[in-house]
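Batch job 17 of 40 flagged for manual review because the log was empty.
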Amino acid sequence: MGRSTARRHHRGSVTGGDGPRSRARARARRRRRPVRVALAGLAFGAVLVGAGAAVAHWRDARSSVTDDQAADVNDALESVERPAVPDTTGGPTSPTPAPGGSASAAPSASPSPSTIAIPATGPGTFTTAQADGTTVGTGGRVRRYKVLVEKGIDIRPSAAATEISAVLADRRGWTRNGTDSFRLVSSGSYDFVVKIATPGTVDEICGAAGLRTRGEVNCSVGKDVVVNLKRWVLGSPEFDGPIGDYRALIVNHEVGHRIGHGHETCPGPGRPAPAMMQQIKGLKGCVANAWPYDRDGDYLGGPAVP
């Protein structure tokens, strides 16, 4: 073998595929491969975790719905979808005044129900009722609220605000507890808002929070109390009382949730149903009632619903 040939053979043994150094590099590459796979797996896991965090953030960013609020919607929907049946619980079938009080709410400031059209849906935009900043109640905490009415329906925002304000100012309402006050506002921050909307718009607002209203019932989500125009005009087929009382019950029940009250049930046959009772499910022997207190200042409550 010539010198030049030997030199080429020697270089081949160093740099070629079968040389000892080449085999050492191959072993090192094999040792690094699991590390690379692990790093890739970690990177992919980080992507999944990031995506999960984004989903969680999106869910958290939606308007919150409490168990009580979801129950109100589900039970209301069941009540309007099932055939009406007589009350066989032994309770009265017509409204009876609460002890020391009256069964009727403040006079309605909206047109009579027979004159109000109920379109299936509306533009989804609202007019805010103007307010003079008057506070009702003497309690330490003042909750600011707005009243909004969807554009294009036959209810004046000022009339709706007058009716809702009268409910909150009533001596049988939540201001009787001496710890809560309410102020109607038309701008700035607020604690809750009452929106009166067409069935289709209610479905959109409530559906965005995961509540199915099917064009029939009200819902409460986040800071919004969303009142279905159909219910505002016609009341509930399961509520045994005048339309003014039903509207007062909507306000008192939802405001009750916002000041910390959960659902209650009938305290006994012939007694006023609590405002925090889901009266649309049936009165269970109680008498239809829209107010948390009677005129003497006694709380018209009942056992808490677990």
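Reviewer: the log was empty due to a logging misconfiguration, but the result itself is present. Residues 3-17, 34-63, 83-110 have pLDDT under 50 and may be disordered. Unflagging and moving on to job 18.
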